[in-house]
Amino acid sequence: MKVILAKHSGFCFGVQKAIEKAFEEMDYAKKQNQDIYSLGPLIHNKQVVDDLQERGLILSDTINEIQSGSIIIRSHGVPKQIYKDIKSKGLQLIDTTCPFVKRIQKIVDQYHRDDYTIVIVGSATHPEVIGINGWCSHEGYVIQSPEDIHRIPSNKPLCIVSQTTMPIPLFENVVAALKEQHPNIKVFNTICLATQDRQEAALELSQEVDAMIVIGGRHSSNTQKLVELCRRILPLNTYAIEQSSDLDQYDLSHYETVGITAGASTPNYIIEKVIEKMDKTYRKVRQIAIDGPAGAGKSTIARMLAKKMNFLYIDTGAMYRAITLKVLKNHVNIFDQQEMHVLLTQTELDLKDGQILLDGQSISDEIRTGDVTENVSKLAAMKEVRTWLVEIQQRIASENHVVMDGRDIGTVVLPNADLKIFLTASVEERARRRYLEIKEKYQNEVDFDEIKRTIQNRDFEDENREIDPLIPAADSVHIDTTQLSIEEVVQKIQLLFDKNTHQAHA
Ligand code: DC
User: Fold this and answer.
1) 419-424 and 287-291 as β-strands: parallel, antiparallel, unpaired?
2) Same fold, 100-191 and 285-505
3) Smaller CB count within 10 Å for the chain: N or C?
4) At the top level of CATH, which class does the domain 11-97 belong to?
5) Is 440 an annotated catalytic residue?
6) Options 3.40.1010.20, 3.50.4.10, 3.90.230.10, 2.60.120.620; which CATH number does 100-191 get?
7) Contact 25 CB / ligand 1 (< 6 Å)
8) What is the mean pLDDT of residues 326-349?
9) Centroid of ligand 1 to alpha carbon of 422 (angstroms)
């Protein structure tokens, strides 16, 4: 299954700012030992509201019972009278009204004073609209369709605004109908761009996929608008959810492509969790990521594990080595971006029967020579090389069950792998293993200290490079192999994999 996120989705600018400010002010209030209130839920997202309440935000429906402390006005805004009440009660005001909503309130306030009749295109029960109407003494006419315009008196000029989350065609239809009947009319299209972008992107994506998932609060008006738009294209295949656990009630396995969008009050972490769950539940292939420093036993363990599980083993280090070999053979100046770009576009790297093919030829021990080993870190630190290889690695892993080892597998290449392992061993032990390996393979006398130094240098370069440095993924399992046999490690990983994959399907 392919999962595609809409071009625009999730937190809008106004909500992002409101939430950041709320968290900041709550920290401050805590330090000052002050109560901090919000008039109604800060945003229409239960998970975020629960989090804020856990951190001490007190939810209040009215200002009447609040005697002291700070009060947050949410991004939807409030009627003018509330500002007066807050002032007269001596409460500390924290205003997170969205700047786009503030603009509507100012227009309404001004035109009401100039004796216009105010028309608000929107939902009369939505807090944003109640707030806006409170800037014209609640004398505005709230309408939701051209059929409602007969209610509007014609004795005065009209000022028309829109709730920020209205669909554009609806606003345009209402305006067109009003223009036919009223000669003196002032129109302000106050639909915000974030809403427009999200709606257009959702519609566009709905036409490309088999099903849509819309993430957001049940009470979030803009989320419900997205649901409605997606249902126009996919009436039976649009799923409205609040969080990843809501996916449990559906079986989406028969869809090939699923689109995801989210309302303007849905935080990123919720969207990410949904994508992660979709990937883990419906991806047909299994992935084990093994990262760690040179000589920790990654390749031996990964190869043996793959064989036992009948998975494909992918040695990504060998891929970095392969391109390094080609660079050296062709005497390419790696600091010349143009030369490197040409080389990459003219290189084919693939996997056949577990063997890496460089331009169709299988490569052997030549990628393990001193020359390649000395230069590979430089290439592995280059953005263009990494992007090129990560794409190849991800493609292979999307088509096969894989055990993939490297430095950035759990963090970059397979962020949703079923299991992530971070293998370590002491530098001495790693140097000892390399020493024995070289001695056995090449029957050469080798210098242990020299090997240890090379390992330390490579650790330093891999851990400190700017792009995709060697760091354990937050959700990886660390295994120190210094005191363990290869078989013990392989067995341990197999048990962890079984446990993880059963959990994922529980
Ligand atoms: O695992 P190895 O020693 O064959 O790796 C060769 C080099 O490639 C090493 O310096 C780290 C780098 N590498 C990387 O940066 N990212 C990977 N996924 C794999 C290897």
Assistant:
1) parallel
2) no
3) C
4) alpha beta
5) no
6) 3.40.1010.20
7) no
8) 93
9) 14
**Which one is catalytic: 128, 147, 461, 463?**
128
Closest residue by CA, ligand 1 atom 16 = 407
Q: Which atom of ligand 1 is nearest to the CA of 380?
A: 15
The answer to whether 494 and 309 have CB atoms below 8 angstroms apart is yes
Q: Name, in order, each residue with C-beta under 8 angstroms of 357's C-beta and a sequence gap of 6 or more.
A: 348, 349, 350, 351, 363
Rg over alpha carbons for the chain, rounded to the nearest Å, is 30
What digits encode the pLDDT tens for the residues 191-226? 998 888 999 999 999 999 999 999 999 988 889 999
* Strand 355-358 with 361-362, pairing: antiparallel
The class of domain 199-283 in CATH terms is alpha beta
Say if residues 181 and 139 touch (Cβ distance below 8 Å). no
With a 6 Å cutoff on the Cβ, whether 144 touches ligand 1 is no
Decide whether any atom of ligand 1 lies within 6 Å of the 405 Cβ: no
Confidence of residue 326 (pLDDT cuts 50, 70, 90): very high
Quote the CA–CA distance of 82 and 297 in Å, as a whole number: 66
**Cα(426) to centroid of ligand 1, in Å?**
18
CA separation for the pair 468, 381 (Å, rounded): 8
Q: Among 365, 364, 353, 472, which residue's Cα sits nearest to residue 411?
A: 472
Question: Which of 371, 407, 433 for a ligand 1 pocket mutation test, highest count of atoms within 8 Å of Cβ?
Answer: 407
- For the ranges 51-55, 56-60, 244-248, the lowest mean pLDDT is seen at 51-55
Best residue among 299, 301, 316, 372 to mutate for probing ligand 1's pocket (most ligand atoms within 8 Å of CB) is: 316
pLDDT of residue 385: 95
Domain extents in the chain: 11-97, 100-191, 199-283, 285-505
pLDDT in tens, 123-159: 999 999 999 999 999 999 999 999 999 999 989 999 9
What predicted TM-score, i.e. pTM, was given to this entire model?
Answer: 0.62
Query: Which ranges of 216-349 does DSSP label H, i.e. alpha helix?
Result: 221-233, 268-282, 298-309, 316-329, 337-345
Distances (CA, A) of 417 to 129, 269, 321, 413, 462: 45, 18, 24, 9, 22
Cα(356)–Cα(361) distance, integer angstroms: 8
Q: Whose CA is nearest to atom 1 of ligand 1?
A: 317
Tell me which architecture the domain covering 285-505 has in CATH.
Answer: 3-Layer(aba) Sandwich (3.40)
Q: How far is the CA of 339 from the centre of ligand 1 (A)?
A: 22
pLDDT-based confidence at 505, cuts 50/70/90?
very low
